[in-house]
TrEMBL record:
Its EC number is 2.7.13.3. The keyword Disulfide bond does not apply. This is histidine kinase. The keyword Coiled coil applies. Pfam families: HATPase_c, PAS_4, PAS_7.
Length: 630
């Protein structure tokens, strides 16, 4: 007997001890369970008390035996009772059987469909009531009738209460399941009342808005979201007025882009809120938009750049010849102006080629504090006497892995843009007074670099279009390629670029780049090709690591016990064996091979593998995943 059969048998045994007759039919009107008094009370054959027996067959048997009295239309009587049963309504009734005994029938629907019925022999109770009616001179017929009605009503109320309790249980379970499901959704689901106060939350707000309180029930959205709520408030007001809203906002503290959907409560008691982090989606959308613009720029310039370059070469040559002649002062000044404009055109061509062509990062270990100080020193002379450049740098010690050229170009571009915004003419002057502030902080896994100026700030149009190629607000003085280049370099590094206006006035540009410390390691480099070892040695030392070299598997084994050795970088195929054998030495092992990723031998390897050729960024990405040296 299986545990399930044992459980069913135990249930039947318990039901058989109950004096009342009990039957349970499922949603298909098939018998699910009954007890022995049920069969005995109605003298049913065994086939009608077996699980699966048809309710219609049972009724047909009872009608044919006269259980419901004489019937002019037996089939119609059966159909009527089957149709009543299909409604699954709670009910209570009393009827007298052909043998003169009276039974009460209480029925209650089940949440899964079907119903349970309890049959009680109340013959003696009825006889007692009749005796009381006949012998009591003090009790009036009206009082007895009222007592009978009250007794029947109580029994019907008990049946209804049982049904309500079952419905309550099902609703409680459904609510628990709903809460569990909403808690698993990677979004914040909530309800606010007409005052914007949270009445429900799936406790995922902190996942979408990092740093907010977890217990928010009873608090207002303004209290919970702080500065970010200012962007949400107009949409919430409209949603509370009955207008569905979908908006995107930037979380002030984390910089994440959040989509907030607000749906009015149909009962008019507030609104439902769905908040999701769409930062990755927005970044992808922006990247696609900028890629399309770069492609358009490339198409526009590809056919013109060569001819334009030739024309500039001719102009520069002719103007250079004129500059060597003895000209009048005014003519000489015009020649110099023409030369300057032509050189600017050549620079502009180079910048267009840079923004439309392929770009690659060249990360290397950098002392970031020193790099920023050098940048400030280099930039100050170009600002003019009236503009101050301040550096506010709070960075941990140690080298950081980044592309220094790309970062310096981006920051210098932002500083010069800030200078132009302060001066208002595109060129700084001694009479202009203003300040530019460069701030560097590490926030979690991000390096945050912020350039703030004391100028007039971004216009609404500039905030929406500043990173578009060729968009400029410098009235013919700018190319419109500076911020797009900064944007592209930042995205290429895996970071984000955000433009806004500082609370105290002025424009603010915030760069966020992945913060990667350089863990200096002693590396055992194993390759039987001298030229490849030389190339890899330069790559590793350029990343700040120390290198020990081995030209064979046996030599590598003899060097594996050197103090301080923390990682082995080995070719897979060595002259005297497989580099994978070095995994037995107990040190982290990174393998290199030119075999494709789907090669069967490569797929059996248990160690990380670099596909040749690779660059320093790919190598450092694997090094970053190794445990820190102790």
């Amino acid at each position: 007997m299986t545990p399930l059969d044992s459980h069913d048998e135990l249930t039947r045994s318990g039901l058989n001890l109950i004096q009342q007759a009990i039957s349970i039919f499922d949603a298909d009107l098939r018998l699910a369970l009954s007890n022995r008094p049920y069969q005995q009370m109605f003298d049913l054959p065994d086939r009608l008390v077996q699980p699966g027996a048809s309710f219609q067959d049972t009724i047909a048997f009872l009608v044919a035996r006269g259980e419901y009295g004489p019937q002019d239309d037996p089939d119609g009587a059966v159909r009527l009772r089957v149709e009543q049963a299909r409604t699954f309504q709670p009910h209570y009734l009393e009827r007298t059987r052909p043998d003169g005994r009276t039974i009460s029938v209480e029925g209650a629907p089940l949440a899964q469909g079907g119903w349970i019925a309890v049959y009680t022999d109340i013959t003696e109770i009825k006889r007692t009531e009749a005796l009381l009616r006949a012998r009591s001179e003090e009790l009036s017929d009206q009082l007895l009738a009222h007592a009978e009605r009250l007794s029947a009503a109580n029994r019907q109320l008990a049946a209804t209460n049982a049904a309500l309790e079952e419905a309550k249980r099902v609703l409680t379970e459904a609510e628990a399941r709903t809460r569990q499901v909403t808690a698993m959704v990677p979004a914040h689901i909530a309800h606010v009342d007409a005052e914007g106060r949270y009445t429900f939350s799936n406790n995922q707000l902190g996942m979408v808005f990092p740093g907010v309180a977890r217990a928010i029930i009873g608090l207002t959205a303004a209290e919970v979201l702080g500065e970010t709520f200012k962007s949400i408030r107009p949409a919430l007001v409209r949603a509370l007025a009955g207008e569905p809203q979908v908006i995107e906002v930037t979380h002030a503290e984390s910089g994440r882009r959040i989509r907030v959907a607000l749906t009015p409560d149909p009962q008019g008691e507030g609104a439902y809120v769905l908040s999701t982090d769409v930062t990755a989606e927005v970044n992808s959308r922006e990247a696609l938009t900028h890629a399309a613009r770069r492609e358009l720029a490339a198409q526009m310039t590809s056919g013109l750049a060569h001819d334009f370059g030739n024309l500039l070469t001719i102009i520069l040559g002719l103007q250079g010849r004129l500059a060597r002649m003895a000209l009048q002062p005014e003519a000489a000044a015009d020649v110099q102006g023409t030369l300057a404009a032509a050189r600017r055109g050549a620079v502009l061509l180079d910048r267009i080629a840079t923004i439309t062509g392929p770009r690659r990062l060249q990360p290397e270990p950098v002392d970031l504090s020193a790099l920023l100080e050098q940048l400030v020193t280099m930039a100050r002379p170009s600002l003019g006497r009236g503009i101050a450049l301040e550096l506010d740098c709070e960075l941990p010690e140690g080298a950081v892995l980044l592309d220094p050229g790309s970062l310096q170009d981006s920051l210098l571009n932002l500083i010069l843009n800030a200078r132009d915004a302060i001066s208002g003419t595109g060129v700084g002057s001694g009479s202009t007074h203003g300040a530019i502030r460069l701030t560097a902080r590490v926030r979690g896994r991000w390096l945050e670099l912020t350039v703030t100026d004391s100028g007039p700030g971004f216009s609404p149009e500039a905030l929406g279009r500043a990173t578009e190629p060729f968009f400029t607000t410098k009235a013919g003085q700018g190319s419109g390629l500076g911020l797009p280049m900064v944007y592209d370099q930042t995205k290429l590094a895996g970071g984000t670029l955000r433009l806004d206006n500082a609370p105290g006035g002025g424009a603010r540009v915030r760069l966020r780049l992945p913060f990667q410390r350089v863990a200096r390691r002693l590396v055992l480099l194993v390759d039987d090709d001298d030229l490849i070892r030389e190339t890899l040695r330069e790559m590793l030392t350029g990343m700040g690591h120390q290198v020990i070299e081995a030209g064979s598997l046996s030599e590598a084994r003899s060097l594996a016990d050197l103090p301080g050795l923390s990682v082995i970088l080995s070719d897979l195929q060595l002259g005297d064996g497989s580099g994978a054998a070095l995994g037995a030495l107990g040190l982290p092992l990174i393998l290199m091979t030119a075999r494709p990723p789907d090669d069967p031998e490569r797929q059996r390897l248990r160690h990380p593998v670099l596909t040749k050729p690779f660059d320093a960024a790919a190598l450092n990405a694997l090094f970053a995943g190794l445990p820190d040296d102790k």
